[in-house]
Amino acid sequence: MFRVLCLFAAFKAGILLDSGMLFPQESSSREVKELNGLWAFRADRSPTRNQGFQRAWYKSRLAETGPVIDIPVPSSYNDVTQDPNLRDFIGWVWYEREVVVPARWISDGKTRVVLRVESAHYYSIVWVNGVKVTEHEGGHLPFEADIDGLLREDPTTTTCRITIAVNNTLDLHTLPPGSIQYMKDRTMYPEGFFVQNTNFDFFNYAGIHRSVLLYTTPKAYVDDITVVTDFLDSTGLVRYNVSIQGATLVTLKVTLIDKDGHCVVSSNDTSGVLKVVDVKLWWPYLMHENPGYLYSLEVRLNAADGTSTYEDVYSLPVGIRTVKVTKNQFLINNKPFYFHGVNKHEDSDIRGKGFDWPLVVKDFNLMKWLGANSFRTSHYPYAEEILQMCDRHGIVVIDESPGVGIKDIRSFENASLTHHLEVMDELVRRDKNHPSVVMWSVANEPAAEMPPAGFYFQMLIKHTKVLDPTRPVTFITDSNYARDKGAPYVDVICVNSYFSWYHDPGHLEVIQIQLNTQFENWYGKYQKPIIQSEYGADAAPGFHSDPPVMFTEEYQKLVLRDYHSVFDQKRKLYVVGELIWNFADFMTTQGVTRMVGNKKGIFTRQRQPKEAAFILKERYWRLANETGRLPLWTKYPCSH
Ligand code: GCB
């Protein structure tokens, strides 16, 4: 108990942002109106990409400024038209939608109306009726603005015009970083030619990628909830803190409700510890017969000011579990947990990185079919709806920041570090309560050998641990242990390696020896548990060759087989997980090493299995049978 109290004190002190970012939900006191569908859209094709600001496109209807097209939200804009210039567009694009706001939201002065964007890549500015309401840097996390004051300026009208300008340009201090290169040689390039350079291996899809919505709360409302869980024997401990905005005089009731709707325990304090007798712990998929058990923490607030009374109700799903790391184990609820999972991307045909429920559900069904118990949100935070699915299904998550491709020494400067720390604030604020999230990953394969990298990662990891001392922190490294400056600070070593692919291409016979050396070096130096956070090989679906050659399905299978044989030796010692690169084929920048994208998926981009998927399925179910306690139906996975 003392441990939970201490952890929580630090957790609370760590959150530097001054407001919460609770997922919008309907309740007896809250309404949600999704603004998804078709928006008017115009790319600013002027040479400076600045015409929209010079001519103040936000001041009138976008269609009055020039030609507009329909673009769906949520979706990347890149792949939905036939225009090659829009596919590769760099700079500002403008979205606009007129919205009818329920009249009572405006007339009822006790109601707060919030405009929220779940994610827009990369930099966004938002106007309502021509008035700027917010701007936000970063392509993968939500931002919002209170707009009821603005709506009430003209209470006679219930329509409002929302304009969102989004810029996908990446520079040395954005996350991920990039740079714009102008080609000035007129014998080689046309006037105004420039390219966006990046050091990451996925297409820089752009636009409004997740939902845009309006939601209401009363003027006095539950702004944030933080829970930290623990257990002692059969008693669960839920340490909680509720923060409130808009009122000082409140009464509060906090009730923990089980899955059957029974009230388990309640309290009237804004913070405290709830004791749960005969607790049902949150367990990962395939580790327990009843994975993903969630309670619901209902927070009911009553407040009053001089003239009005307010009631607000918010229900937070709560999974009670612990995460700990020893020198050679990763423990969930004090039991060794072995990650047998995948790396993913938010990526699909046509939609690009646009959120899409059918895709999300298909991916979960494929992961469960595969016997995967975990994934890593390579290389940026995923939609919160995906984490909610993980909570419910018991799929364990390594939650990664967009710190990918940090390769230029200037991207280690203070401006970058400051922004990276802010992104971690936003990430932890959004995802801190998800039981499925068991570890933070602050970056992927940075140039860790560069002199400033040590300081940069020390700061980043320390900061993340202050934000959340309850979860381990890592960054993802490549296989060169000798030059790594950040590894001393991480809790778990996460290593990516591509033996017989980028090194010694075509030589399957080197895999086992090189992988063994990799593990021995890392463990010998740091004595920390190790996850193989990426390995794999490209396979063009339908390409076959025996004896196997690179890019065939046979070669991909054999790479997996050789990696697995070393994993099987080391997982008895200190290797605590293996995550295949990648779950599915995905789109990349065009280049000579990529044939219509990265083909290391074990599923195609359309989510059909390659032969490697069956190898992995057989292995993951075997691992689950060895290490977990499977529900009855899962003993016969083939029938599902
Ligand atoms: C990596 C990167 C990942 C790439 C992968 C590859 O190390 O982390 O983003 O897609 O290798 O296939 O090259």
UniProtKB/TrEMBL annotation:
Give all residue intervals belonging to the Glycoside hydrolase family 2 catalytic domain: 323-624
Q: Which residues form the Glycosyl hydrolases family 2 sugar binding domain?
A: 33-218
- Give the reaction(s) catalysed: a beta-D-glucuronoside + H2O = D-glucuronate + an alcohol
Task: Enumerate the subcellular locations listed in this protein's record, separating them with semicolons.
Answer: Lysosome
Q: Which NCBIfam families match?
A: PRK10150.1
* Gene transcribed to yield this protein: GUSB
Keywords noted in UniProt: Glycoprotein, Glycosidase, Hydrolase, Lysosome, Signal
GO molecular function (one): carbohydrate binding
Domain of life of the organism in this record? Eukaryota
The identity of this protein, by name, is: Beta-glucuronidase
Mostly located where? other
Tell me the leader sequence span.
1-17
Species of origin:
Nothobranchius furzeri
| Family listed | Belongs to the glycosyl hydrolase 2 family.
Offer one Pfam family short name for this entry: Glyco_hydro_2_C
